[in-house]
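Morning, I've got a small favour to ask if you have a moment. You're getting the sequence in one-letter code plus the fold written as tokens. Thanks so much in advance, here it is:

===
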Amino acid sequence: MAETVEDRLKALGLTLPEAVAPVANYVPAMLAGSLLHVSGQLPMENGKPKLVGNLGDGVSVEDAAACARICALHVLAQVKATVGDLSKVKRVVKVVGFVASAPGFTDQPKVVNGASDLFVAALGEAGRHARSSVGVAMLPLGVPVEVEAIFEIA
């Protein structure tokens, strides 16, 4: 039997969380043809932000990268909730990471690597993707990072 995405996550000591319901007027994911657009996901644990604050003003790159990894798990949870099975993912097409950054902070790509590394670990070569890492002044609930992604679905 082939190894599944969830088997790979389990081997990493991770489990897929329940898909989080939207907190405003949007849908968590939208399938358009074979492309699944997943709305921005926050680093939530037990209904609360894992961490709050800005990079370059008290939040470390390592802690924020761990939050980006949590965001990526939530993205995968939305994929599963929308298409029913992660084996339907042909590839991750594009990832966008938003990083709450104090003026002068320039290591946004290192933070978003937390999400990128998770997608590759979970999906193998299909997890490699194009990406943008964007510094912003503030994110919802004060979290340090938010991740959205586009997937090609079989």
User: Anything to note?
Assistant: The chain has a mean pLDDT of 96. The chain is about 30% helix and 30% strand. The chain has one domain: 5-12+31-153. The longest helix spans residues 61-83.
